[in-house]
Write a structure and sequence with these properties.
Strand order of the largest sheet of chain B: 1-2
Number of domains of chain B: 1
Shape of chain A: globular
Number of strands of chain A: 4
Helix content of chain A: over 70%
Mean pLDDT of chain B: 88
Distance between the termini of chain A: 41 Å
Strand content of chain A: under 5%
Oligomer: heterodimer
Low-confidence stretches of chain B: none
Largest sheet of chain B: 2 strands, antiparallel
Radius of gyration of chain A: 21 Å
Mean pLDDT of chain A: 90
Number of helices of chain A: 19
Shape of chain B: globular
Order of helices and strands of chain A: HHEEHHHHHEEHHHHHHHHHHHH
Largest interface: A-B, 36 and 32 residues
Order of helices and strands of chain B: HHHEEHHHHHHHHHHHHHHHH
Chain lengths: ~475, ~475
């Protein structure tokens, strides 16, 4: 049943090509149905026994081993939820082909989060590049495909480093069926000579995918050029794959190397945190504001991941889901603005709250969640991470991390203000407010944002259990 | 009265070469059919006879699996290793026939097909050749037929290709022959198996193996002996290009593997072979870098082939048992991916123009979605991306070269793969980008089922091998 999370969307994506090209609505709702089925499968499959089939015996043993539980479950649920909302809320040209690519993306990304074998993980890691590349070449206009190539080259470089590290891990350890195990509990500590290289390969793949400064330069363009419905899912989930990898792959399997790299990662995370927030303050393109804010937020999660503190890791898990929810919400709302106003530039919009009060309300909620208003999910994650960092003795990083959290309020409110307040721009086309179905599409996200803000314990618990005895020393 | 000359070969010797004998004799029937039959029947009949001969040869070869026998005094070793390569060669030749059925011209059916089969039988001889004489015999049988085949197309580039191939390939044969002479001088034997003993004259032996390897590497078109490949691939008719990209390489690789695994003294084998690994490394970089700038898909696949064979030779680095398995696995995966791509090119071809220009792919994703999706699948495979046999094959090669202590080759392979992604996905982008070419409606040759059959078989192969990596398990003992 867990394997169905991967197979069903991919097969459904191919089956969608049987629908005539002109039957756009049929394709859209079939896609929503499949994504909903994924959500149901994820809920039913949570905590079910793992499923495994033999793949390779030599040169190392590898299995088609999938399992669902803990943080992986929450991310898969987030993935299905954001796909549903994005597909319902937004219209995209050539809807049938688009929905098919989104379903491929859904299947491939589910694979990353349910894989219990490093080789299978690497397979899905590379596989999830392809639908995004296809989306970029077929739906992102202009610039001669530069965005698509940049996305591909960066992420493929990361993916290949990860693949080489996986091969080396398999050769050294004899098996790659080790996700969910930890050193001393089924796997042996890998010696310094190999461990450093293997960790470097994984870390490079994870840092590029997240992305963490200075590997982020593919990200603003990709987010700006992807159709809003796609970027909602990519920013919500694909960017979490790297952090998930650090938590689930390297922390348990290579704790020594994690500890050794902690200082460097703290520096990268902090730079990204401050840099992202500052750049977000001055962007004119609303999607780039959110893209750079992601860079900032993801830097904060990276700090938590490398703190090794149980509270901070709980916070990391909450913030991973929280960021997924509000960034999906933000990109969907920005997409709805762009659908109506044909622009998303801050300098050309204004006074939309008068014309489209429902749209303004939706953007308001998402922006508040993003800037960390207490009671919403962003706050729950931030406070846990900061507490954990402080507990772990990382006082200065915690103090520096406060600054961008304040800046988040500035850039999010700036975005909201420019869009919604002020005089109505005469040049803007008069468009109807959100239709009920578009509003309804945002409902699940809003409910999840509020629920996670009030009661983050289940998600936090899934993160806190990721602390392994060996990681206790990973402290700043 | 005793006979002047006794023939020491028995039934078992002839049985060992039965598959390739069938393939070598079928052309006589093809030529006879070409003479007798009326014009309208000719081409179909020739192709049918040739295909039948190849299939029978393939089946006979498969039946002798697991019965290694050193036929003709050790000149030709039948059994598992040779059979794997023979099957690849038969598959490649059958595939070229499929494309020829779609693209070939009526007036040259008989001769061209006969030459194709003779060339294939030469490659099959190389697959089992275990002494220097049979190696050279197989190589020349393979090459001489190919020189003619390259010039078959009625365009100036075809003649250029044929001449270029003839001159450069003859020079390589010269190198090889001189190397063979030196090897014989150093060891006093033409048997590969005899070379494993420490040679009387190590310096001469090293020089001889170097020259011998240069000849082989030329046939494999590895860098820096690759310069002929793009021109020849571009000029030759499409079915022949497809044939060369698989059959020649399979034959030469069989000889290379046998030489590397069974014909070198243990103590300095790695030293003698080190240049070969360096050549593989250069090929992975040069092939992929060269592919970047190509706008002709045949040229692109030529450069791609240079790099792909670099991957295969990388698997042999360290001459481990697993490495040989993975080299064969990757060769089979490459065969499927590469031939699949060639079949798509064939389906895009017109009467006077082969569908190899990049611009004829513009907007294909909207004109022929199924064909474009399959082409994407093959290109992803060649680029080593999942879910294809190329991904699994590359992972296996990476693991085995790390295991054998050739981590640097694994790193170069990763770098080469990263570069290649741009070259292959450039075609994908052309097919799916919304741009000027999307509206381009071209006349497409009436659909023929034959290349589609090839495409389907290749796609199935690429998918199955991705998840169920069959690799022949017991070939190593059969090399020796």
């Amino acid at each position: 049943m867990i394997a169905a999370l991967i197979v069903l969307p991919i097969l459904a994506g191919f089956a969608l090509y049987l629908v005539p090209r002109s039957a756009e609505l049929t394709a859209k709702w079939l896609g929503v149905l499949v994504a909903f089925a994924s959500l149901v499968l994820a809920v039913l499959g949570n905590g079910q026994p793992d499923e495994s089939l033999r793949w390779l015996q030599r040169p190392f043993s590898a299995n088609f081993h999938v399992g669902l539980g803990g943080l992986g479950f929450w991310v898969v649920a987030l993935l299905a939820l954001s796909t549903i909302c994005a597909l319902v809320a937004l219209r995209v040209p050539r809807q049938r082909d688009f929905v098919a690519q989104m379903l491929f993306l859904l299947g491939a990304m589910s694979g990353v989060f349910v894989a219990r074998d490093l080789l299978l993980f690497a397979l899905f890691w590379d596989l999830m590049l392809i639908p995004v590349f296809m989306l970029l070449i077929a739906w992102a206009p202009g610039r001669g495909g530069a965005t698509a190539w940049r996305y591909l080259i960066y992420n493929l470089a990361g993916g290949l480093a990860l693949l080489l590290a996986t091969a080396a891990y398999g050769v050294v350890e004899g098996s790659t069926d080790v996700i969910g195990l930890s050193v001393g509990h089924g796997v042996t500590a890998i010696g310094a000579a190999w461990g450093a290289w293997i960790f470097a390969g994984y870390a490079f793949g994870f840092l590029v995918k997240t992305p963490v400064w200075p590997f982020h330069t593919w990200m603003p363009d990709t987010y700006a050029d992807l159709p809003p419905a796609a970027v909602a899912v990519v920013s919500a989930v694909q960017s979490k794959a790297g952090l998930y990898g650090f938590l689930v792959v390297t922390a348990p399997l290579l704790p020594e190397q994690m500890r050794a790299a902690a200082t460097a990662m703290f520096v990268l995370g902090l730079v990204g945190l401050v840099y992202g927030a500052l750049v977000a303050l001055v962007q004119d393109d609303a999607k780039r504001v959110v893209a750079y804010s992601s860079l900032s937020h993801l830097g904060l999660i990276l700090l938590a991941v490398f703190s090794g503190n149980a509270v901070a890791l709980g916070g990391a898990a909450v913030y991973i889901i929280a960021h997924g929810l509000f960034s999906a919400g933000l990109f969907i709302v920005l997409g709805q603005v762009e659908e109506r106003q044909q622009t998303r530039l801050l300098s050309r919009l204004g006074g939309l709250a008068e014309l489209e009060p429902k749209l303004a309300g939706a953007l308001h909620i998402m922006a508040l969640a993003a800037l960390g208003l207490p009671g919403l999910c962003g706050f729950a994650g931030e406070i846990l991470i900061l507490t954990g960092l402080y507990q772990a003795g990382a006082v200065w990083p915690a103090a520096i991390a406060l600054v961008p959290i304040v800046l988040a309020a500035a850039y999010m409110l700036r975005l909201f203000q420019r869009f919604m307040h002020g005089p109505v721009r005469a040049a803007l086309p008069q468009r109807p407010d959100l239709r009920p179905i578009e509003l309804l599409a945002l409902g699940p996200l809003v409910i999840a944002i509020a629920l996670l803000g009030i009661y983050p314990a289940p998600v936090a618990g899934s993160g806190a259990t990721l602390t392994h005895p060996q990681l206790a020393g990973v402290q700043r | 009265m005793t006979p002047v000359l006794t023939i020491p070969w028995g039934q078992a010797d002839w049985n060992a070469v039965l598959p390739l004998s069938i393939v070598a004799l079928t052309p006589l029937l093809v030529i006879a059919a070409d003479l007798i039959l009326s014009r309208s029947l000719r081409r179909g009949a020739c192709i049918a006879i040739a295909a039948f001969g190849l299939i029978v040869g393939g089946i006979v070869a498969a039946l002798s699996w697991g019965h290694p026998y050193p036929a003709f005094g050790g000149g030709f070793v039948s059994g598992g290793f040779a059979i794997v390569f023979e099957e690849v060669i038969v598959a490649g030749a059958l595939f070229s026939l499929l494309l020829a059925a779609h693209l070939g011209r009526d007036d040259q059916a008989g001769g061209g097909i006969a030459l194709l089969l003779w060339s294939a039988s030469g490659a099959m001889l190389m697959a089992g050749a275990a002494n220097l004489m049979t190696i050279f015999l197989g190589l020349e049988l393979l090459s001489l037929s190919l020189y003619c085949l390259c010039g078959l197309a009625a365009r100036p580039t075809a003649r250029e290709a044929a001449l270029k191939y003839l001159i450069l390939s003859s020079a390589a044969s010269g190198f090889m022959l001189y190397g063979m002479a030196l090897l014989f001088g150093a060891t006093g034997s033409v048997q590969l198996a005899a070379f494993a003993a420490p040679p009387a004259s190590p310096a001469l032996f090293a020089l001889g193996s170097g020259l011998f390897l240069i000849g082989l590497v030329f046939k494999l078109s590895l860098a820096p002996f690759h310069a002929w490949t793009p021109d020849v691939y571009e000029g030759a008719p499409l079915p022949i290009t497809a044939f060369m990209s698989v059959v020649t390489k399979a034959g030469a690789l069989a000889v290379l593997a046998r030489f590397a695994y069974a014909a070198l003294p243990q103590h300095n084998a790695q030293a003698i072979l080190l240049p070969l690994w360096i050549v593989a490394a250069i090929s992975m970089l040069v092939g992929n870098l060269g592919a970047l700038a190509q706008t002709d898909v045949k040229r692109l696949l030529a450069y791609s082939g240079i790099a792909q064979l670099g991957y295969v030779v990388t698997a042999l680095a360290g001459t481990t048992a697993l490495g040989l398995r993975y080299a064969i696995f990757y060769l089979v995966a490459y065969t499927f991916m590469n031939l699949g791509a060639f079949a798509v090119v064939a389906l895009l071809s017109h009467e006077h123009e082969e569908g190899s220009q990049l611009q004829s792919y513009a907007g294909l994703g909207y004109r022929q979605p199924a064909l474009a999706a399959l082409m994407t699948f093959f290109l992803l495979g060649l680029a080593g991306l999942p879910p294809t046999a190329g991904f699994t094959g590359k992972l296996l090669i990476l693991a085995s070269s790390v295991d054998a202590g050739y981590g640097w080759l694994a790193v170069i392979m990763i770098v080469g793969t990263g570069i290649s992604a741009y070259a292959y996905l450039k075609i994908v982008r052309a097919m799916y980008a919304r741009g000027a070419g999307a509206a381009l409606q071209r006349h497409v040759r009436p659909a023929s089922l034959w290349p589609w059959l090839g495409v389907a078989v290749c796609a199935a192969g690429v998918l199955v091998l991705a998840f169920y990596p069959l690799a022949p398990s017991d070939v190593l003992p059969l090399v020796k």
